[in-house]
Batch of 2 targets.
Target 1
Amino acid sequence: MIRSMELGLKGLDKLDGKMVEGFINSLNLFEKIVLRLTGVLFIASFKLEGWESKLPFYLFRCSKHGYQIGYPNGHGARLICFECIHDGIKNLGK
Ligand SMILES: [Zn+2]
């Protein structure tokens, strides 16, 4: 199970669409239904390299980029799509 391997993450930059797809395929039926209905599924709390403590990771759907894995950011604890952030950085140069 990918979850018990802590997604093999050293950093979120290692996370690509194939890993997200593989993770979705490993979900049980109940988890797939929760994800389909709510668009968000709690995965587990992980501590990544260089972090002081664990953060909860979620699988969620970005309207632009499809399913993503991330953790809540900022005061509103929003789940932010890293591909959207990359797009934003790219667009800064335009
Ligand atoms: Zn996105």
Note: The helical segments are 17-25, 29-38, 82-92.
Target 2
Amino acid sequence: MHCPFCRNNDTKVLDSRVAEDGCSIRRRRCCQACEQRFTTLELMQLTVVKRSGATEAFDRDKAIAGVRKACKGRPLTEDDLARLGHVVEDSLRGSGQAEFASHEVGMAILEPLRELDEVAYLRFAAVYKQFETAEDFEIEIASLREHRAAQLAEILDQSRSEGLTSAPSG
Ligand SMILES: [Zn+2]
């Protein structure tokens, strides 16, 4: 980051804060050469820490590569996957964190994937939640059902309050 006044490369950060959009950092800097002060807006770089401890920049396509495998044979389009990648990146950025373990990226994929395709979700969850037995699948399917029932109840509540369904007579 060089000084906009004298092009000197040696600047000191006086203050850093996350910008309102949650995706960038506003930094107040002071040039060490001419002592002018200026503000920079830097896009937060999302970093993924792999199991080996190595880090790499978050890559949307890479993040959903595992999902692509789980979606084999499912009626999902490249557009669906691209949208999923976008949702995942947004939710990671929205957390305000800049560094994520690879399993955290996987977890961020699970919820939007569940809304997209339940079979792909189960296959993906099996990897990320490290299912070991058929029972693990049963537990996950039970929670899928609960989630679906809760969604259904919500829809019913809404339509009831909007007067779309008649109250039971009795
Ligand atoms: Zn300067």
Note: The CA atoms of residues 23 and 93 lie 6 Å apart.
